[in-house]
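Field notebook, page 398. I keep forgetting to write these up properly, so this time I am using the form the group agreed on. The chain and the ligand, magnesium ion, are recorded exactly as supplied. Prediction of the bound pose follows.
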Amino acid sequence: MSFTKFSNSQQLIDYISKNSSFFSTDADLVTEEISDGNLNYVYRVKDNQGQSLIVKQTPPYIRVIGEGWPLTQDRLRIEHNSLKLTTERCPEIVPEIYHYDSDSSVILMQDIGDHHNLRELLINRTKLPLLADQLGSFLATMKFYTSGMGIESTDHKALVKNSQNPELCKIHEEVFFWDPFCDHERNDINPLLRETAEKLWADNELKREVAILKRRYMSDTEALLHGDLHTGSVFATSDSCKVIDMEFAFCGPAGFDTGVLLANFLLNYCGQANLPGSEEQRADYQAWLLNTVAALWQSFSQKLSQLMQSHNLDPSLSNASYQQWYLQQLWQDTLGYAGVEMTRRTIGIAHVADLMNIEDPAHRAESEKLSLKIAQMLIVNRREINDSLQLAEQIRAL
Ligand code: SR1
Ligand code: MG
Ligand code: MG
Ligand code: MG
């Protein structure tokens, strides 16, 4: 594995011509760097016939930080494997892969530029009626068919081994489960939130629950996870939805992805309290967000139940009352991981535009405090919140 950054357009065009037949040989190509996330370089290459593809290249470091924070390029293999597995079960939900080159750390893939970033769609209060069902069904299908319920136990063990992602997991062990729960130098805190953060760092019950969730994150290998399923990793139109950026994938606790995703809807809920727009528009959208969270869980749990009843390879896990217990555990894990994601996105190193777009620091602090309150309630009271109706009631009461 080596790394040479494409330092100009011609190098990128030469690479594509040599490694892919996507464009015709006489095509006139233009390139544009569209790197947006923290870790990688991303480019769009277009011809003059309206055809385009995406180039993702992983440097041996975190892109936004530089060589000072080295990071394994093995993350591209992890992403490629996860994309391939997802393509087998849910082909509509991931971009098509055209070419994978582990030597140059490059993937060429379908341009999903006709889809919009879900975080931006939520900030602009777009309602997407099919989204909850699309994401719920994808999550249930992938959880089931990468766990010992949907594949042979021996294949599951091989998957766990092949999906080891120690360096990226370590980043999340720190930035999810440690930094935001202490006065860490990597944290980025609105000064108006300092007192609230200090109270949080002194809350031993909260820290105990976060440690319980972290232990599960570090040791439970139940199913292959996306590993970083925030709304910036989802792209959507009114009738289609795509999931990208699988470099944090690993076999972990099944409630982690559902929790992170749910948290990002709730972060937007908190942002809507102070984003621009009339009070009526914002309240109406907050109601849509809570309904969407409920619909997402319903779609996920129904699909998973169906699969557990009809396709379970392990008869000992088909017991109906066990399945009821299992879904309840998954719900509680989801709430707990959601609370951790909300906390880290509010006071940790990696913030979200749903809160950061609130220009006035005092108004932003209001939304951020709401986020921390919801997060604390999710982490500490997760065992007492029975379903999504109760969840919505408790959130509205804060
Ligand atoms: C170094 S901060 C890590 C975060 O950046 C990525 O965008 C992921 O969301 C990750 O959690
Ligand atoms: Mg990204
Ligand atoms: Mg990402
Ligand atoms: Mg913030």
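OBSERVATIONS:
- The radius of gyration is 21 Å.
- The chain has 14 helices and twelve strands.
FOLLOW-UP: compare against the apo run.
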